[in-house]
Amino acid sequence: MAWNYQMRAYMKEHLKLYIFVSVLFVMGIVFGSLMVNALSPGQKEEIARHVASFVQNVNQSGIPSDKTTFVQSFSLKIKWVALIWVLGLSMIGLPFILLLDFLKGVLIGFSVGYLVSMLSWKGMLFALVSVAPQNLVVIPALVICSVSAVSFSLHLIKNRLLQKRGTIYPQFVRYCTVTLCMAALLFGVSLFEAYVSPAMIRWVTPLLPDAG
Q1: Is the pLDDT at 14 greater than 80, yes or no?
Q2: Angle at CA 55, nearest 5°, toward 50 and 60?
């Protein structure tokens, strides 16, 4: 009962931040998908060659070992979370946290938008197995990390610049706990990318002979 009350109180306190950060992600995704239309024919051709090369390598020799994929995936994700955490520790890091959220949305929007633009329904299918599954967890995890970081940064501004009183230790512990929980969640996502996604990608790539 006490836990439910704390959760309701937490959501009530941070609901506006969750909405704002989520909208920022969506804006980034939309912007990234629109960027595809701004590419020159030469740029589209260059990216198409990279996609075709990837598809050919998968069809011929498969995807790198599970361990290699896991290390690369988790390393990238933990660096992103760590950067958000570090930025949340300073009062000037707040706008950079929001910028990172927007850029993450841009990357996802561009990836999906390009695949769909170039390969139509085949691109959509490829995006559904290679981009969508993990990001259904990664995006909420990054939203939670970002809201926690923004909230802590705002708390620093309030208690160090405006009121100049009170301890920040309880908020800091909660901030670190949330970040560690999301890191553990992303650890699981990286395992999925290493041991499940390759099989799904290998299943789809034979449908993309015209990727170049």
Answers
A1: yes
A2: 125
Distance CA 193, CA 131 (A): 10
Separation of first and last alpha carbons in the chain: 57
- What DSSP designation does 158 have? I
Tokens of 117: 């633009």
Q: Which of 87, 58, 97, 88 is nearest to 208 (CA)?
A: 58
Report yes or no: 198 and 72 within 8 Å, Cβ to Cβ: no
Q: Which residue has the higher pLDDT, 7 or 86?
A: 86
pLDDT in the model for residue 40: 76
CB atoms within 10 A of CB 166: 12
Instruction: Annotate 37-93 with DSSP letters as a single string.
Output: HHS-HHHHHHHHHHHHHHHHHHHHH-SPPHHHHHHHHHHHHHHHHHHHHHHHTSTT-
Q: Average pLDDT over the chain, rounded to whole? A: 83
Q: What is the C-alpha separation between 104 and 142, in angstroms, rounded?
A: 9
Of residues 163 and 140, more confidence is placed in 140
pTM: 0.85
- Report the alpha-carbon angle 77-203-191, nearest 5: 25
pLDDT surpasses 90 at 26? yes
Rounded-to-integer distance, Cα 65 and Cα 27, Å: 35
